[in-house]
Amino acid sequence: MPFESGGLADKLGNRYEERWVVSQLLSLMEEKIKSVTIEAIGDDEQGVDLWIVQKNGVRQAQQCKARNASKEYWSITDLISRGVLSKIRFQLDRDPYYEFAFVASVGSEVFKDICEYARRSNNDAGSFYREKILKAGQEVQACFRHFYTFFSLDPDMESDLNQAFAYLKRTYIYVYPDDQATWQTLLDRTGYLLIGDSETVVATLLTYAENKDRFGSPIFADELRNY
Fold this sequence. Notes:
- This protein is α/β, with parallel strands linked by helices.
- The chain has one domain (7-121, 170-226): Trna Endonuclease, Chain: A, domain 1.
- Helix content is 52%, strand content 13%.
- The chain has ten helices and five strands.
- The chain has helices at 7-29, 76-81, 84-94, 109-119, 125-133, 138-150, 158-169, 180-193, 198-211, 221-226, and strands at 33-38, 50-54, 59-65, 99-104, 171-175.
- Strands 1-2-3-4-5 form a five-stranded mixed β-sheet, sandwiched between helices.
- Helix 1 packs parallel to helix 8 (180-193) and helix 8 (180-193) crosses helix 9.
- The radius of gyration is 19 Å and the shape is elongated.
């Protein structure tokens, strides 16, 4: 269901992002990731709500979008028109090891599938294109065509295909529902990790970066536990 328009939509969008941030801070305390950076600065800020460093040391940019206006999904053309793809390219071009995750309460199934196909293709761009794209249905082929056209790439050229493949392998679509069940799961995780009223703990986690002047700096598990 889409948000209502106006100020309420902005508030609900901010709430969605905050809940995702808390979920990442809980993952930090569970030692599933190494660090979280909220409200980065400079080039790190472009199209990014937070950065995480994963256990393998790879940095992943994360952008949150609670809704796609009145639509129940994100098409590849929506991702282009809303500037998401341009931000993905900007961040991935900065470092060949960076990843980008687009987090939304509604999915982008076709594009997500293409990214997953790329990751399951044993680092073989040619096999990915022949077996996963050319043999797929029209919807997948159309999505891939929009993707490489936007990036001014030609999959019939090996170098361009390799570049498209590299972008796709490092792009992730995470569906994080904006509903009561997800909120309850967040509270349950909080209660499992920390003593005290779960809603109070969530609010406390949200104020950490501001109260400790940690915006734009990596936050680590030990300091968060101490807080």
